[in-house]
């Protein structure tokens, strides 16, 4: 915990603050981030002084999803961990070979890698103490996994939140969209890859509150303060009670399917074409080509 590379941790009175700290990369997710996140969540849960966890991001946005520039453009790194055991599913060379269109794809290798990320994200959901998440700027793709695994969400009114990789190369692995906003609205987002603004996220029941950028910190801190007033035992019991309803709906089975599907999405004809485009023209151009036909560049399309 003294050598965090992707986020920071500090205790501020009754609040444990976990902040993504890769602003130069849009707080892009690496394989180290879910592991460090889970470690910080456990540290907060074991600290008797902590009542509530606050999740946020440094820089211009909360999280822009997986840091895929290197992996999508060259498939040589980014999908692995340099310190991983040789030949394991986390070995960059193993992941690169498994994403070679001319090779034989092993779906279990993808699952072994991604399922570890899911467990890291779900440490927020399984945290005994409540997790409040503050979103500013953007929260897209894999970034939504962590926001939706949190308990309460306070969002900038003009932020964008959604899962654009639904259009190609991705399926949400934590599979929490339907649980958060219902089947109809989950399909509306995932069958288009459209994003919501922060204000729309509140209207849809995805977030508790939206605030303009200059008041976001104030509103987030006010909610943190109110939650932190409750005894830890009360907070733990209430969270466990509500989460049981989601467990009873088969969340684990859905996540198992979503994690396998995410691997499949990278190995469809369209997925390979997207990968080739990223290798030839760069990740940014590949994403631009994905989103241009929708006319939104990943922004909300609900305002016309």
Summary of the model, kept short:
This protein is α/β, with parallel strands linked by helices and 304 residues long.
Descriptive account of the structure:
The chain has helices at 32-46, 69-74, 92-98, 107-126, 142-149, 177-181, 183-190, 198-203, 213-228, 232-248, 251-265, 269-281, 283-291; strands spanning 7-12, 15-20, 52-57, 131-135, 138-140, 152-156, 160-162, 195-197, 209-211. With 304 residues, it is an alpha/beta fold. Strands 1-2-3-4-6-9 form a 6-stranded mixed beta sheet, sandwiched between helices. The chain has a 3-stranded mixed beta sheet with strand order 5-7-8. Strand 1 (7-12) and strand 2 (15-20) form a beta hairpin. The longest helix has 20 residues, at 107-126. The protein is globular and about 60 Å long. The termini are far apart. 46% of the residues are buried. The mean pLDDT is 93.
């Amino acid at each position: 915990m003294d050598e965090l590379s992707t986020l920071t941790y500090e205790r501020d009175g009754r609040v444990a603050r976990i902040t993504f700290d890769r602003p130069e990369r849009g707080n892009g997710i690496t394989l180290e981030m879910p592991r460090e996140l889970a470690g910080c969540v456990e540290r907060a849960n074991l600290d008797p002084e902590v009542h509530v966890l606050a999740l946020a991001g440094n820089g211009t946005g909360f999280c822009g999803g997986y840091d895929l520039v290197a992996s999508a453009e060259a498939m040589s790194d980014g999908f692995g961990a340099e310190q991983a055991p040789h030949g394991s599913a986390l070995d960059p060379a193993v992941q690169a070979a498994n994403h070679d269109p001319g090779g034989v794809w092993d779906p279990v290798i993808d699952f072994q890698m991604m399922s570890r990320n899911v467990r890291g994200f779900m440490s927020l959901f399984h945290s005994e103490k409540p997790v409040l998440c503050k979103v500013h700027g953007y929260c897209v793709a894999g970034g939504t996994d962590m926001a939706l695994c949190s308990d309460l969400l306070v969002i900038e009114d003009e932020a964008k939140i959604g899962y654009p990789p639904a259009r190609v190369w991705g399926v949400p692995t934590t599979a929490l969209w339907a649980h958060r906003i219902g089947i109809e609205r989950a399909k509306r987002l995932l069958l288009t890859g459209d994003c919501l603004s922060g204000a729309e996220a509140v209207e849809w029941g995805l977030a508790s509150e939206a605030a303009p950028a200059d008041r976001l910190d104030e509103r987030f801190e006010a909610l943190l303060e109110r939650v932190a007033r409750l005894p830890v035992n009360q907070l733990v019991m209430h969270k466990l009670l509500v989460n049981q309803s989601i467990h009873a709906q088969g969340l684990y089975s859905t996540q198992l399917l979503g994690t396998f599907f995410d691997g499949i999405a990278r190995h469809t004809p369209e997925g390979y074409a997207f990968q080739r485009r990223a290798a030839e023209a760069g990740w940014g151009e590949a994403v631009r080509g994905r989103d241009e036909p929708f006319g939104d560049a990943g922004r909300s399309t609900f305002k016309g």
